[in-house]
Write a structure and sequence with these properties.
By secondary structure, this protein is α/β, with parallel strands linked by helices. The chain has two domains: about 80 residues, no CATH class; about 190 residues. About 50% of the residues lie in helices and about 15% in strands. It is built from eleven helices and nine strands. The strands form two sheets. Strands 1-9-8-2-5-3-4 form a seven-stranded mixed beta sheet, sandwiched between helices. Strands 6-7 form a two-stranded antiparallel ribbon. It is globular and about 65 Å long. The model has no long low-confidence stretch (mean pLDDT about 90).
Length: about 290
């Protein structure tokens, strides 16, 4: 509902009349209701506990409920954070940055670099993490920047919408000038997509990152943005570059397949270490994918 509609304004005034505790309770019930609806939409008849146990079979039984609660809180944060940022007044974002060695290596590079992202935790906040560590980037997005993200990003952080060959050309041009390109590796379709195992499921991955890396000679730095444990703070983590074989050691197709596989293995280890940051939509995709 747009904020400038009379009903929206009247509803806001009505809520402001509530005592603080009642207002918090109304918001809590609304958030829980929204989360339960998202669970049904993405997980179907499966409970969140069943999904966690299926995808993370090595997780101790006494941790399953705790991981489920973490996933729930992350989902609620992801749903409401954008709305909070679009509200009146200035919003401050607390973001901690981790991976000092990789950050220094990315900043001090003498050539191009690719930052590989994953839809995990708070993926929409990853551009802010790159801005926070002082790395101007061209960010490839599936849907374009939201209004709140455009408000927060500086002019040297540019977001473009993924539209196939044109975005690959623009990304390659950026890399050839020594710049940084950031894009997600999970998801993909078409004849050139690569099927791989992830958390015991067969998923399809785009090879665009590997194509760009091969053509530009750019290292691939995995990165994620995740939520803090008990508040609205964010953590941005940059990891050491993915180890890839020499480009001339195999055919272009084989090199791209190996590079995508190596990058996916890195992210699989990251996701296994942070299961509470899993997104409901990704969990739903995994549960629908064929088991391996």
């Amino acid at each position: 509902m747009p904020d400038d509609l009379p009903l929206s304004r009247e509803l806001g005034a009505l809520l402001m009349e509530l005592p603080h505790r009642q207002l918090v309770e109304v918001m809590r019930r609304s958030a829980v209701g929204t989360f339960e609806a998202e669970c049904r939409a993405h997980l179907g008849d499966n409970t969140l506990g069943q999904v966690v146990e299926s995808l993370f079979p090595r997780l101790p039984k006494d941790r399953i409920d705790g991981v489920g609660r973490e996933i729930s809180l992350c989902a609620i944060r992801n749903r409401f954070w954008g709305r909070l940022l679009l509200g009146p007044g200035r919003r401050e974002i607390q973001m901690r940055c981790f991976g000092d060695v990789a950050i220094r290596q990315l900043r001090e590079r003498t050539g191009p670099a690719i930052v590989a992202l994953w839809h995990h935790g708070a993926p929409g906040m990853a551009p802010l993490g790159l801005q926070c560590i002082g790395v101007p980037s061209l960010i490839v997005s599936r849907s374009g920047p939201s209004d709140w993200l455009e408000r927060l990003l500086s002019k040297d952080m540019r977001v473009i919408v993924h539209d196939g060959a044109l975005v690959l050309k623009e990304s390659l041009d950026r890399l050839k000038t020594g710049g940084v390109v950031a894009m997600a590796i999970d998801g993909g379709d078409g004849k050139l997509a690569i099927p791989l195992s992830f958390l015991g499921r067969r998923l399809i991955f785009a090879r665009g990152i590997a194509v760009l890396s091969r053509l530009a000679g750019a290292p691939i730095f995995p990165a994620i943005a995740t939520w803090g444990t008990a508040d609205w703070s964010l953590d941005f983590r940059l990891f050491d570059p993915v180890a890839t074989p020499p480009v001339d050691s195999m055919t272009p197709d084989a090199w791209e397949r190996e590079t995508v596989a190596a990058t996916v293995r890195r992210f699989e280890a990251i996701v296994r270490a942070t299961p509470g940051q899993c997104r409901l939509d990704i969990l739903g995709q995994l549960m629908k994918a064929p088991a391996i």
